[in-house]
Amino acid sequence: MVFAAIDIGSNAVRLLFSNVFEEREEVVRKDSLVRVPIRLGEDVFTTRVISREKADALVSAMHAFRHLMDVHHPLDYLACATSAMREALNSREVVERIRRETGIDIEIIDGQREAEIIYSNHIAEHLNRGVSYLYIEVGGGSTELTLFSDQEKIVSRTFAVGTVRMLKGMVEKPEWNKLREWVENRTRAYRPLSGIGSGGNINFLFKMSLKKEGRPLGVKKIKSLYKYLLSFPVEDRIKLLGLRPDRADVIIPACEIYLSVMKWAGINEIIVPNVGLADGLIHLLYEKHRRERLLPDESR
Fold it and tell me: Residue 297: what are its φ and ψ, rounded to 5°?
């Protein structure tokens, strides 16, 4: 079964196709991922609206995604928009235009819903019992945190602290302090604590570390990568290190957010499973399909 997920973030827009196989348990394999660096947050976090130029770019991306879905024939799809779209005063107009011109229905989700979708990746089920974890998702406009222990979700929270927002100088000190206080207070009773990181930036840092898949990334390694990247101007990160232009600038604030949260939570290492919001949407689609398929049997 093929499912498609569209993630409209503050930095980039993604279309993920995944195959889901039903064996002894659900097996998900990513087929292809298309990423377009529209960076909606550039407008929204300073002017509170999506400009005509950004809206046109987003509509064009959705047209392309529509054509790709017509070729891949997914069984179903979900499209969600996060921080930038939920703060834009004209987001409803843009969503309606996309629906009218491309036929793609977009749901603007709040931070709590975003954290729940990310959590639906079922990572906790594959981690150790009796151990506590803090799931950290750093995006362009916000950071989502989920604390769970003994494979049970304890609490989730989203904060208006993101990489694009930091680049624009739009992270207010009270919000940063609120993030710190929440992390310190909520995690105090769950020590020792391990981290789980998701998002393009932590995935890139893991790739840079040359760690084997499944191995944790230590805080010391993240600090060394941060200092190494910081020693290059943005242009050289692109030319010499091979970073994409839309990754070369946000990677620095991403490091700062991860390192800060890990410090406040007393986390020494972080697991990087290479999943995010789009992967969570794929799981939700499969669960919906499975429930609908089983419904006739349950009604007998």
Answer: -65, -35
Residues 156, 225: Cα–Cα separation, whole Å: 28
Q: What is the pLDDT along the chain (300 residues), one digit of tens a residue?
A: 899 999 999 999 999 999 988 776 667 888 999 999 999 999 999 999 999 999 999 999 999 999 999 999 999 999 999 999 999 999 999 999 999 999 999 999 988 888 788 777 766 665 677 789 999 999 999 999 989 888 788 998 999 999 999 999 999 899 999 999 999 999 999 988 999 998 899 999 999 999 998 899 999 999 999 999 999 999 999 999 999 999 999 999 999 999 999 999 999 999 998 888 899 999 999 989 888 877 755 444
For the record, the structure tokens of 125 come out as 């089920």
Cis upstream peptide for 296 (omega within 30°): no
Give the Cα separation of 281 and 106 in Å (integer). Answer: 13
What's the whole-model pTM score? 0.89
